[in-house]
Amino acid sequence: MIEQYADRVWQGDSDDSIVDTGMDGKGVQTVADGLGWWPGFGNVITFETEGELILFDTSSPFSAPALHADVRAWSGKPMTTAFYSHGHIDHVFGTAPFEEAGPRATVYAHEAVISRFSRYVLTNGYNAVINQRQFQAPNLRWPTDYRHPDVTYQTALTVRRGGLTFDLFHAKGETDDATVAYVPEHRLLLPGDLFIWVTPNCGNPQKVQRYPREWVEALRRMAALDAEIMLPSHGAPIFGRDRIRQALLETAEWLESLITQSLDLLNAGARLDEMVHTVRPPAHLADRPYLRARYDEPEFVVRNLWRLYGGWYDGNPANLKPAPDATLATAVAGLAGGPTALADAALRALADGDERLAGHLAEMAALAAPDDPGVHRVRAQVFSARAATEQSLMAKGVFTWAASESAARS
User: What's the whole-model pTM score?
Assistant: First the structure.
């Protein structure tokens, strides 16, 4: 059953990714003897070996009770070991129900996970706001207490439990604390979030630095392992050496193309604006079901590359020490004939199909007249229209949030 499902996803007949959790709520799916896959927003890989239960990733604070119930329906063995693929909260919050009813497990992770948890405490309010916006979850609260790993490593580590071997190695990509695992007994690759069935989450506009070049290296290193099963931490399994290699190597090719184009322009002295509107992903990979820009977007990756290699100055001297946004908006509104004129121009641009220009004009109108209900009605209309036409979850989240802000003031 699970192989048939995975084949439908591979063929593009079903969706399963970090955006579309196609098997969420279906419980642990048996992949092979002693190997299970728990699908959700943050998959968990389960192992039963010589009387022990082992988890690779442990789910979120919101799904931990469901994970515990589903895993217990699959295996009653004591959980002795868990691995974090990285420190994002949808992967590190599921051990408590198991440990409350049994022994304390040994949790393995890369050493940088501990620094991530410290940063999450330091920026708790900010992380709550940006994740509310990104996932349209206004009641989301960011946790402050974390289950720290018991054993950390720097570069690589081999862990043997029961009859299984977990060969771990560190990688950078979406995060700086990623762990990839290979389990030779199952010829199983566990890439964590380094493969998520959409384009790499390598430019998230509201999150900390990503590492594109290191991500490409990790993808190629994983492809060289010649695994027969790949169980990512988001999205469907992939079965078969050839498919796994294709998915990993083409994802590397897609990302490397953005890197090469961006660095060429950066080294030629281009502004960020030119890079954002020039760099494009390889057209011949556009039909791949695992390379759809449904979560992150190519132009966000370009901005992340600029931040990584070029700093925060975007090449526009007016932006080095800019006027406050509201001051600039008020001046432009005065030249245009007032905030209402700017709002009307935003609606014309929207009608003409120039949604990007419409967004600028609507935002300026609202900054120039923050208490004008009519202006906010226009801003809500413009950003609602923008959200409706976007494919990526990140863009949809930001635009929907902006529309909701103005809808509440109109």
Answer: 0.96
Q: State how many domains the chain has.
A: 2
Contact 35, 186 (CB under 8 A): yes
Residue among 247, 263, 154 at smallest CA distance from 197: 247
- Answer for the pair 19, 294: CB distance below 8 angstroms, yes or no: yes
pLDDT tens figures, 331-350: 999 999 999 999 999 999 99
Q: Are residues 229 and 359 located together in one domain of the fold? A: no
Q: Give yes or no: residues 327 and 248 share one domain.
A: no
Q: Is 332 a domain residue?
A: yes
On whether both 165 and 85 belong to a single domain, the answer is yes
Phi-psi map region of 400: left, alpha, beta (phi>0 left; psi -120 to 50 alpha): alpha
Query: CA distances (Å), 164 to each of 42, 49, 160, 221, in order?
Result: 23, 7, 6, 21
- 155-181 pLDDT, tens digit each: 999 999 999 999 999 999 999 999 999
- Shared domain for 233 and 337, answered yes or no, is no
Residue 262 domain flag? no
Q: Nearest 5°: CA angle at 390, between 386 and 393?
A: 115
Domain, as residue range, for 361: 323-407
Question: Of 239, 255, 271, which residue is a domain's last?
Answer: 255
| Single residue among 255, 280, 300 that ends a domain in this structure | 255
